[in-house]
Fold:
Amino acid sequence: MFSERQQQIIEAAINLIAEKGIQNLTTKNLAKNIEISEPALYRHFKNKLEILKSVLDHFSVKMKPAIEKLNRSSKALDKIEKFILEHLRIISSNPDFAKVIFSEANFQNEETLILKVNNMMNKSHKILENVVQSGQNIGEIRNDISSLSIVRMIIGSLRLLVTQWSMSGMIFNLELEGKQLSADIEKLIKKK
Amino acid sequence: MFSERQQQIIEAAINLIAEKGIQNLTTKNLAKNIEISEPALYRHFKNKLEILKSVLDHFSVKMKPAIEKLNRSSKALDKIEKFILEHLRIISSNPDFAKVIFSEANFQNEETLILKVNNMMNKSHKILENVVQSGQNIGEIRNDISSLSIVRMIIGSLRLLVTQWSMSGMIFNLELEGKQLSADIEKLIKKK
DNA sequence: ATTATCTTTGTTAGTGTTCACTAACTTGTG
DNA sequence: CACAAGTTAGTGAACACTAACAAAGATAAT
Structure:
């Protein structure tokens, strides 16, 4: 799909965003980062917007395993734990991703980018909601609480954890902290 | 503290950010919005950074009641409910705030702005953590779960709810949805 | 096998636009 | 007549992007 040069550009773009935010992503910085001239970028992407779209696609591909691995578990609670830990594992080993996630909101101006981000978010929310609902149906998860609230708490706390990790300069072990969070969530929503 | 003109500029800045994101906040747009010339802005603020700082200060002042009202309740669970509902009430009646919250992350580049945002967040997190901990101590809140996890779930789901409300174009009733969330959180963390 | 041509990927130099901000001057008010 | 608050005109810097040309390899005709 993407040529080597294109991948190089995408990765450089992510680096630049992670370093100093989205406003650090300029064609000048991008070109300097991979040591080609600025116009050479336009041999590989139509314009800057296409680069940003490709960053999101790259992002979405890298995050895929976090959802695909869910089916390997049979229990709902195990799936939820995997959902949390796999997300954190991927972010942990691609720390730049954490910063790009927060820049998402900065993409506000471009209609197509907003749509892309919304679709990505909605997709994983729906998958998790299905897991929670079927867990409630088979009596694994308490059903005196709406699945929507449970999903909001899981994804909300997950996102906040990543935010805190990123803003703290990544000083704590994200995956370890995630295990604690995951265990606590399980305690709360498990049906006794 | 702020002159009338300064307040007018701050409010216009928030409008612009809410409308099309932080990159929509230009001196040109700001001037046009309040129908003065661009240089006139500099009679009231040293530069654009000072305007952004003032936006955050304005924000912080407006959000204050959400925390100050906590003391009127005696029970921890009531305080948590108030924490959630007051935040949502303020955001609900100042819808532009929701968008500005997400632009927070875009302030990345300016050291002083990051500090301001971090301080604001940390302050309310700590207050809520104290509420949770004393609730655990007096046996109102279950203590088989760390207060950190509980706080993360409350604030995480609160932020996500606001994000979803804002991204959906504010199509649902934020306060109503907040009541549901608050009730569900209470069910989960209440000691029986 | 050699030559001719096309395509890909790069370069240097420069475009117009937008940005935050300033200089210098003006006007209204106490 | 001092001062606060406005104006018009314009600054250099940064931005995304383009025009024109160069080099090198692949393809194809002779």
